[in-house]
Specification:
Blueprint lengths: L3 E4 L1 H9 L2 H16 L8 E3 L6 E5 L2 E8 L4 E9 L6
Parallel strand pairs: 1-5
Antiparallel strand pairs: 2-3, 3-4, 4-5
Length: 86
């Protein structure tokens, strides 16, 4: 059963500001994430000392939280590689 995706306001704003190519690539990965967050095709790591995970899409990082009991993934932010963890 796929997960529900919630995209926070900050992440949605960033997604809309990106170039069409980056936006499409990130959107594709987010859709895959919703279908199967444990897919080996996705580059996902748990962030140390935090509850969040990160999904790598080229130079971009999608920071998200997942709740396996209610099957929800909350996209917290989308940032360039350098500023994603600050």
């Amino acid at each position: 059963m796929p997960y529900s995706l919630l995209i926070k306001k900050e992440a949605k704003k960033m997604l809309q500001a990106l170039s069409r190519i980056d936006r499409n690539r990130i959107t594709e990965k987010i859709v895959l994430l919703g279908q199967n967050p444990d897919s080996p095709m996705l580059d996902i790591k748990k962030l140390q000392g935090q509850v969040f995970f990160r999904l790598r899409v080229g130079q971009w990082r999608v920071i998200f939280d997942r709740d396996d009991t209610v099957k929800i993934i909350a996209i917290e932010k989308i940032k360039p590689r350098g500023g994603a963890y600050k």
